[in-house]
Amino acid sequence: AVATVRSGGFSIPIYFLPSRETYTAKWKEQGKERLLRNKDLEELRKTVRKHAKRLSGNSPTIETLTDDEKAILQEIRRRGITLADLATIHTAEPVTVDDAITQFLEDKRDTSADNQLTLRTHLRQFAKTFGKRNINTVTTQELDGWLRKIAPGLRTRKNKRGCLVNLWRWARDKGQLPLHDRTAAERTSMPSERRQKRERVVETWAAEELEQILKVVPHTHLPWVILASFAGIRTRELFENKRSIAPSKEVLQWEHITLTGDEPRIVVPASVAKVPSKRTIPISPQLAKWLRPYKGRTGTICPGLVPWNAPRKTAAIPNPQSVNQIIADAVGVPFKKNGLRHSFGTYRTLMVGHVGPVALEMGNSEAKVKENYFDAGKTKQEAKDWFAITPAKVSRKLEVVA
Q1: Within 10 Å of residue 167's Cβ, how many Cβ atoms?
Q2: Cα(346)–Cα(374) distance, rounded to whole angstroms?
Q3: Cα 263 to Cα 57: distance, rounded to the nearest angstrom
Q4: Residue 374: Cβ within 10 Å count
Q5: Residue 157 near residue 165, CB atoms below 8 Å
């Protein structure tokens, strides 16, 4: 050799071939001999140096490796991993959890307002503990510990875990985590679906409780009680959450309710529904009686505050209460979250006798309706009593605000 190019622990010799009057560099790579030739020695040196650096990775010499590093090299050799295999390994970009969440939520701006609210709520809570850490340093054990501590309830833990899995997968796809691996969030323990179903309780109201609710609910929120109880409309499909950190989505309008003709109905547009799919709900004669005073109205059905938020304290309202609290005080039991819609689903299933039509009206899958409402411990007579409640049975003046 007339010259040798070294980089780290790797070296490439250069020879002169008189018969060709040229210089040749030789080395082995992946079991094959490689050759480079050039009549200019310095030009060949520059080219060879690039290959030497690439092959050495500027790695330390074998004498400077620790015992752990030597063990890693032995394992690489045992598994038959080549330099080409190592070249495909992705090096993740160091990004903090805070930054990853900010970018992730920005990417989700085109999703539904409910989805954005769920992601923001759970991920901002997670960031309070792990926000300053690099996302690629958070371990599965740490995630499991946080989920068990912050969410003892299985349903809540499942929801929070789902948000973390979405974030980790997004970070992997954006190059912030190693590719081709199950992420730390995906390896966390999945709450037992069977145990969740055993512990789930679908709370409903009785007919006599609904009569009391209809007597005391403020006139601004009466349409909410009527439509949730007798049509299964979701609260989020009626009210804008004006205090939400997520953008408001469209809500049901009076124009979506048709009281005339042979088939009075409520059409819930895809832009309003929680699941973006349009559905049609038939209006029963009983519901028509409740809606008759609102005939001809236009605009948002429920423009006021969501029923779980109390108005601001003012001189005129020294002791503000949420509508939910007003109802709870009047009935004498804690307010049952989603109880009006759950009652509709339960009693409607009893009246119809099967889950198909109820699933279409409620915007749920048949499996979900069967799981939540079919044979829910109620009787058909209780269902008849529920759907027999008309304005004539409730002693209140139907006030309609212009």
Answers
A1: 25
A2: 7
A3: 76
A4: 16
A5: no
**295 alpha-carbon distance from chain centroid:** 38
- State the Cα–Cα distance between residues 147 and 32, nearest whole angstrom: 52
Which one-letter amino acid corresponds to residue 299? G
Q: Which tens digits make up the pLDDT trace of 159-168?
A: 999 999 999 9
- Which two structure tokens, joined as six digits, stand for 192? 């037992």
The closest alpha carbon to 76, from 52, 57, 48, 53, belongs to: 57
Helices (H), 63-139: 67-79, 83-87, 97-107, 113-130
Q: Report pTM.
A: 0.62
* 3-state helix/strand/coil string of 1-68: CCEEEEECCEEEEEEEECCCCEEEEEEEECCEEEEEEECCHHHHHHHHHHHHHHHHCCCCCHHHCCHH
Sheet holding 279-282, edge to edge: 257-258, 265-268, 279-282
275-330, pLDDT tens digit by residue? 888 999 999 999 999 999 999 999 999 998 899 988 888 888 888 899 999 999 99
Instruction: Give the tokens for residue 290.
Output: 């409740």
